[in-house]
Specification:
heterodimer; A: Rossmann fold; 2 domains; six-stranded parallel beta sheet; 21% strand; B: 2-enoyl-CoA Hydratase, Chain A, domain 1; Rossmann fold; 21 helices; 37% helix; globular
Chain lengths: 387, 531
């Protein structure tokens, strides 16, 4: 079958890192990602089924991997070679459409008894993601045994599947996984019961979060979102942000809304109780720390990687820095509602066949400035899919 | 004898006309047969001995006032308030007329044994003056004698301890002014009346007032009913200030008003700037060379460097009159003088009014002219330089030239940045802006802090800039800015154009083909008396 495979190739990985520094997305050309013919993945046992992807999205974490920017933290929790793609809607053998929950938790790995996190229902925090009868891999799309969405076939444990309602299009369904991330974040934020909120970044995660916050009625005092590009700006407004500002306007916007003073030009004396970073860069984290209120919480929804940030303000103002990763099965049910209610299928801006993966990755890496949000692979017409 | 201002009908032989363009210039050819240019008068002769004229004015007051000397007595509290850095524009060469007048007043006060004297920069909601600016205005001798003792300072419109409510007008307008002034035995107000808007009861009722008080006339309704605010007797802004003046008087505050006028000598008769005051067909070969050299240099210079050069220019203004005494009587005499220098009779209105906006307005002295100030200078000040009716017909088009950079001075204009980002991205409608946003900005503690302790305009000030153009916004069919940053121009709600010809094409959508065009050749300052 056809699959995009990412192999352990240090020289090419370094080349990707260098070229992507100049031209984001070019790691698809220079790095260790290749379109290959491979044997289909084998189901470990009867609890597993084959999923034939229809659409598979390209996520920011995929781009970081392809462009050589991902953290070495992942080394022990991925296994090579792997087929990327964890935002997947596909067909089961009985032609039921399903969305994949890519987390490879204890149950999926055949571990019994399950770890404490899984036992508590926090499968996204599974403590055994490198163990059990599967090769290491925090998710489908990073595990050599399962295959991934950027192919015509992968295997999935039955607990990883959520049936797609008939009235949900493929484009909507492929948005369910990133929206589940957003729902998970929105639920975490809701636990802080903030009146107002700042959301940094209006890419897929940021926009999905705005949709989820609105759906769940979080932050009734309004959300200020940052958006770099005009299309993002419009979508953020449509999805419920009370105010959308350019990234360099956020400090002033939060200051004015929160009635803060300013120290040294950028650090607010007050700020919002909760600030959500959907970007994950050093600049966005620093900005979040600058505009969060003393004793407040910065929630990192965007994958940060290796960043250099001055944490003095975090210490002095007793700020909490809270990671927010993935989702649980419950989040998927809500995500389907959010996708339908907020018409998030409109965030899928373009799709490509596998053979045009260079273009697809380049488009995804430059989505904002090209007026796009989510780029996906369209596998519905791939020949191998029906063999 | 200076030549009066006049209106030139443009024909084929008319040379390209000078347009100011921020820290630069443009020469523009206007369509022959349907364009005209309103030129300012040449500068009037200055007083031969301004100091003698000042002394004379103090001793021979107008109205029912006694001479200054008779109003002073030992042990009294004397407060001298003076106009702030927004006047004159550009700043004048030393000695500033305020210095001359203040020194003369202090001489009389000293002779009468008055030693409880405070000097207050009557800046209302403007930014505080720096030491250098205060020194320039009052002179080093006065500054060194009073500032170290804490007796020369900026008015603080947000200091509750030092404000006092004097009452309210019949229209319910609260009058709250500086406590020191209100509790003095005499307030001497030292004015510079660069334009006819300045002076009169507005000096004290606005210059020394609080936000609580100023908001009664600095609002959309008032500005839309001031046609124009340069014409005191047709201005709701002035009517309100005059009502407040009555309350101040009835509360027992005694004011001795001193108003001075300057001539139109903005650019001098020698040096590179002199060409800017000449009529284009009278430019000599040397003038042309000077202009071309200056323009070439400015076009290549970084904007900041050009700004510093222009902001360092000190105009060689001469003092043309000094009147002192009772407020109304003084102000009427002053207005007559200002009109005699600036008024130009213009027959009928025009379809398109063009203006070249210079580098400085009242609120960007030693600073960048940000987009909001571009709006205020064009639709506020210059549009309102008329008597009877606007130069441009209702539904007509205003075309301005200015670079309109998306650039703000964060020290002077912090609330302007937020206004531009937050308010204008939502709406440009003055009434909506006033209703939805003014209160939050006016009461923002951070802006208040910066106004009181730094050099920031009050949080509400950008709103007033917008209201200043409210009458023009109501009147005009379209506003076009030539050569501006398109993003900034659009944020203002105006249309950008890269050339004047493009602007004329854009204007044709509104006023039709072959429109009449009037260019307002300002500065030096003109006021149009439109018949």
């Amino acid at each position: 079958m056809k699959a995009l495979r990412f192999s352990r190739d240090v020289p090419r990985y370094a080349a990707a890192r260098i070229s992507a520094g100049v031209r984001p997305g070019s790691g698809a050309v220079t790095g260790p990602l290749a379109l290959v013919d491979v044997d289909p993945p084998v189901a470990p046992d009867d609890d597993w089924v084959t999923l034939r992807p229809r659409l598979a999205g390209i996520c920011g974490s995929d781009l970081a991997t392809i462009d050589g920017h991902s953290s070495r933290y992942f080394e022990p929790i991925v296994s090579f070679p792997f087929t990327p793609g964890h935002e997947v809607v596909g067909d089961l053998d009985d032609d039921t459409r399903a969305v994949l929950i890519p987390v490879l938790d204890c149950m999926v790995r055949g571990i019994d008894p399950v770890c404490a996190s899984c036992a508590a229902g926090r499968t996204n925090q599974c403590e055994r993601i490198a163990f059990g009868h599967l090769a290491p891999g925090l998710q489908t799309g990073y595990c050599t045994d399962t295959g991934g969405g950027w192919s015509t076939r992968l295997v999935a444990h039955h607990s990883q599947l959520v049936e797609v309602p008939d009235d949900l299009s493929d484009e909507a369904a492929v948005m369910v996984e990133p929206t589940a991330c957003a729902v998970h974040a929105a639920r975490m934020i809701a636990s802080f019961d903030p009146t107002r909120l700042a959301v940094i970044g209006s890419g897929t995660l940021g926009l999905g979060l705005l949709a989820a916050l609105g759906h769940l009625g979080v932050a009734p005092g309004g959300v200020i979102a940052t958006a770099k590009y005009p299309a993002q700006h419009q979508l953020a407004r449509d999805l419920g942000a009370a105010r959308v500002v350019a990234p360099d306007e956020l400090t002033r916007a939060v200051r004015a809304t929160s009635g803060s003073f300013v120290l040294g030009g950028t650090q607010l004396t007050g700020g919002f109780e909760v600030v959500v970073d959907c970007v994950g860069s050093a600049a966005s984290i620093e900005q979040a720390l600058a505009v969060v209120a003393p004793g407040g919480t910065v929630v990192l929804v965007g994958m940060p990687g290796h960043v250099g940030v001055d944490l003095t303000s975090l210490w002095q103002r007793e700020t909490a820095l809270r990671g927010c990763y993935a989702y649980t099965r419950d989040d998927f049910a809500v995500a389907i509602d959010v996708v339908a209610a907020k018409r998030l299928d409109r965030l899928v801006s373009a799709s490509y066949p596998l053979r045009r993966f260079h273009e697809a990755i380049a488009h995804a890496a430059n989505a904002g400035r090209r007026g796009a949000v989510k780029i996906a692979f369209d596998l519905r017409e791939e020949k191998e899919r029906t063999r | 004898m200076p030549r009066p201002g006049f209106v030139l009908d443009v024909d084929r032989s008319t040379p390209p006309i000078l347009f100011h363009h921020g820290e630069g210039f443009r020469l523009e050819k206007l369509p022959a047969g349907r364009s005209r240019v309103v030129y300012p008068a040449e500068p009037h002769e200055g007083l031969r001995d301004p100091d003698a004229a000042i002394r004379h004015a103090l001793a021979h007051p107008l109205g029912d006032s006694e001479p200054l000397e008779a109003l002073l007595f030992p042990g009294m509290r004397l407060t001298i308030a003076f106009d702030d850095v927004s006047l004159p524009l550009p700043q004048m060469r030393r000695p500033d007329v305020r210095q001359r007048i203040i020194e003369a007043v202090l001489d009389v006060a000293a002779a009468k044994g008055v030693d409880d004297v405070h000097l207050i920069a009557a800046l209302a909601l403007h930014r505080r003056m720096t030491e250098a600016e205060l020194r320039h205005a009052v002179g080093d001798r006065v500054f060194d004698a009073f500032a170290p003792l804490g007796r020369l300072y900026n008015h603080d419109a947000e200091d509750p301890e030092n404000l006092v409510e004097l009452g309210a007008t019949g229209d319910g307008e609260v009058v709250e002014i500086n406590r020191r002034a209100a509790e003095s035995d005499l307030v001497v107000y030292v004015n510079i009346n660069l334009v006819s808007m300045d002076g009169g009861h507005k000096s004290t009722a606005t210059g020394l007032a609080s936000y609580r008080s100023i908001r009664h006339h600095h609002n959309v309704r008032t500005m839309q009913h001031s046609k124009s605010f340069m014409d005191r007797h047709a201005s709701a802004l002035h009517s309100s200030n005059w009502r407040m003046g009555d309350v101040i008087r009835d509360a027992g505050v005694k004011i001795f008003q001193i108003e001075s006028t300057l001539n139109n000598d903005t650019f001098g008769t020698t040096g590179p700037m002199a060409v800017l005051a000449k009529r284009e067909w009278e430019w000599t070969l040397r003038d042309r060379a000077t202009y071309l050299g200056m323009k070439a240099g400015l076009d290549r210079m970084p904007p900041g460097a050009a700004r510093r050069i222009f902001q360092s220019w000190r105009a060689p203004y001469a003092v043309t009159s000094v009147h002192a005494g009772q407020v109304d009587a003084v102000h009427e005499a002053t207005l007559a003088q200002v009109f005699s220098e600036q008024l130009v009779t213009v027959e009928g209105q025009t379809d398109i009014l063009t203006m070249g906006l210079p580098y400085v307005g009242p609120y960007n002295v030693n600073s960048v002219m940000n987009p909001i100030l571009v709006m205020c200078l064009s639709l506020g000040y210059f549009f309102n330089m008329y008597r009877n009716k606007p130069l441009v017909r209702e539904g007509g088009v205003l075309i301005c030239t200015h670079p309109t950079p998306w650039d703000f001075n964060p020290i002077h204009h912090p609330s302007y940045i937020d206004f531009f980002e937050q308010v204008l991205s939502e709406t440009t409608d003055p009434l909506e802006i006033e209703q939805r946003f003014e209160k939050d900005f006016a009461e923002d503690e951070w802006y208040r802090h910066l106004y009181r302790t730094s050099y920031a305009y009050h949080g509400v000030h950008p709103f007033y800039m917008w209201y200043w153009g409210a009458h023009a916004l109501q009147h005009l069919g379209r506003v076009i800015i030539v050569g501006g940053d398109p993003r900034a121009v659009r944020r203002l709600g105006f249309r950008p154009a890269s050339t004047l010809d493009d602007a004329f094409e854009l204007a044709a959508d509104v006023v039709g083909p072959q429109p009449t065009i009037t260019h307002f050749h300002n500065p030096p300052l003109i006021m149009a008396d439109v018949q």
